[in-house]
Amino acid sequence: MVKQQIKIIVIGGGIGGLSTAVALQQRGFNVHVYEAAPEIRPTGKGIWLPTNAMLVLDRLNLGDVVADRGIPLQGIEIHDKRAGLLQRIDLEAVENRFGRTTTSILRADLQAALTAALQPGALYLNKRCVGVEQNGEAATALFADGTSAAADIVIGADGIRSVVREAVVPDIKLRYSGQSCYLGVADITLPDVRTVREIWGGRARFGYSAVGANKVYWFAPFKEPAGGSMPAGLLNMLHNRYADFPRPVRDIINHTSVEEIIRVDLNDIPPLKRWHQGRVVLIGDAAHAMTPNLGQGGAQAIEDAGAFAHVLAQNLSIADAFQKYEQIRRPKATRVAATAWRLGQMAHMTKSWPRRLRNVAFRMIPGWVQQQQAEALYGLEF
Length: 382
Prior knowledge:
This protein is of the alpha/beta class. The protein has a single domain (3-174, 268-378), classed as 3-Layer(bba) Sandwich (FAD/NAD(P)-binding domain). The chain has helices spanning 15-26, 51-59, 63-69, 91-98, 107-117, 234-241, 249-254, 285-288, 297-312, 318-347, 352-364, 367-378, and strands at residues 7-11, 30-34, 46-49, 71-72, 75-80, 84-90, 103-106, 123-124, 129-134, 139-143, 148-151, 153-156, 175-186, 195-201, 204-212, 215-223, 262-268, 276-277, 280-282. It has a seven-stranded mixed sheet. Strand 18 (276-277) and strand 19 form a beta hairpin. Helix 1 (15-26) runs parallel beside helix 5, helix 1 runs parallel beside helix 9 and helix 9 runs antiparallel to helix 10. The longest helix has 30 residues, at 318-347. It is globular, with a radius of gyration of 21 Å. It starts with 6 loop residues before the first strand and ends with a helix.
């Protein structure tokens, strides 16, 4: 496999697609990224980059760049709005073990760093993929503007509603978690910028973390049917919904412009039978979209990018490289997605006695168990 002679197309210019392109380019491959939007826009507000993502970014020489643009964290706390602290994850211990902690950052800043690391001329905007065809020797991406692009490998990094996935495993249905979520960025300074907090309150919860000296990313999931719209008087509604939550929840809402708030339904997809077919392979949400309850969606996509580039550089056949990549990444991504789903359901328990049992159980988890769980989540397997 001569790297420069292999043409690779990445469909999707999000975190997973950009990370994959950068990783492959740095290993000498000829890579082009096709993005549907007319400009690179973040699909969200903020993001956590846990240790596993930061370790991959270190290999891409982007770890320090990203850490400097965000806030390195020292702890993650889960609270019940009435019972108080349920669990604290010591990220300083994780950093001592792996050399990196979680970085809290604006998605726009992360995507800017990844875009800047691409080789000039490798990114094509306003190119919406509408299908992929294969003939055994190549795969061809078809675009809405009537053009097409052929390559030895087409990588589907086009998200949870992936078009490329149809060429691998068609007709996959999204699974709605029963929760929608408001996301925003507030202009406020937290007294403790190095700690993430999430507060559970039955039908609704609220989490937040600093993404800058005076910027706070927040997320507010709540139980509701899918497909809802942004209500009139949104800020007043949020104040009422979170009136009995502890500070600084109301302060954060107070310092958020309504223009900075978006709403998303929280979906995932069932585990796929396969991640590749012929010359087409999936990464990120296209392969294993998950609910955001572990803060691992972007991290798992970045892990995919690192693992795929690592495997493809081993002079294997394309078929063998695809198989090895899936063997490395599928078990962990499937496990993380399942855990994220369960955690999201536990967070929204509404009956009092199950909530009390849940709270007791969380408080009883020994520190060494948390440490083992962290090492399994944050360590890399390639």
